[in-house]
Write a structure and sequence with these properties.
The protein has about 180 residues and is α+β, with helices and mostly antiparallel strands. It has a domain of about 120 residues: Aminopeptidase, CATH 3.40.630.30. The chain is built from six helices and eight strands. It has an eight-stranded mixed beta sheet with strand order 1-2-3-4-5-6-8-7, sandwiched between helices. The radius of gyration is 15 Å and the shape is globular.
Length: about 180
């Protein structure tokens, strides 16, 4: 899949590149970021970043979130696409210095548009840890509905965590536009 560049009012979403590694590692490597995500290890090393970049192919659409003002990497967002079911899982992270600025919501709106309009998906869903209420607020702002809780669904750092499931269907997204 060829990943496009997407512009929003404050952000540029583009494919990750090796030139992002010096900014990527300290941002994604923060314990606070890893604590809110399933697939980001801690500590996060340059080798992890290189492995992530090497697997940027197939059906997944991963974007670096770049601040248009200053050209700074502030996070990442992507869709794990399941073509057979015309659905995808939305995942994202924002570096701690950039929390609370609405960047996840702004990037999420652009990626939902991409998923429904370009990839022709029928459903996009997201899962967040119960203790990450900020992520639930982002998903609600994107028009997603809370669909349920998965009790002790994930083992993270030796602890079983509850997960919250959110989703939006194409017809629901279209009605919001």
């Amino acid at each position: 899949m060829t990943i496009p560049q997407i512009e929003t009012a404050r952000l540029r979403l583009r494919p990750f590149s090796s030139s992002d590694i010096p900014q990527l590692v300290p941002l994604i490597g923060a314990r606070e970021v890893a604590a809110t995500t399933l697939r980001i290890p801690h500590p996060y090393t340059e080798e992890h970043a290189k492995a992530f970049l090497a697997m940027q192919s197939g059906n997944d659409a991963n974007f670096a979130i770049i601040l248009r003002d200053g050209d700074q990497l502030c996070g990442g967002i992507g869709l794990r696409v399941e073509e057979e079911h015309r659905r995808a899982e939305l995942g994202y992270w924002i570096g701690v210095p950039y929390w609370g600025n609405g960047y996840a919501t702004e990037a999420g709106q652009a990626v939902l548009r991409y998923g429904f309009e370009q990839l022709r998906l029928n459903r996009i869903f997201a899962i967040h840890f119960h203790h990450n209420a900020a992520s639930g607020r982002v998903l609600t702002k994107l028009g997603m509905r809370h669909e349920g809780s998965l009790r002790q669904h994930i083992a993270k750092w030796g602890e079983f965590l509850n997960s919250e499931v959110y989703g939006i269907l194409r017809k629901e997204w279209e009605a919001l536009q």
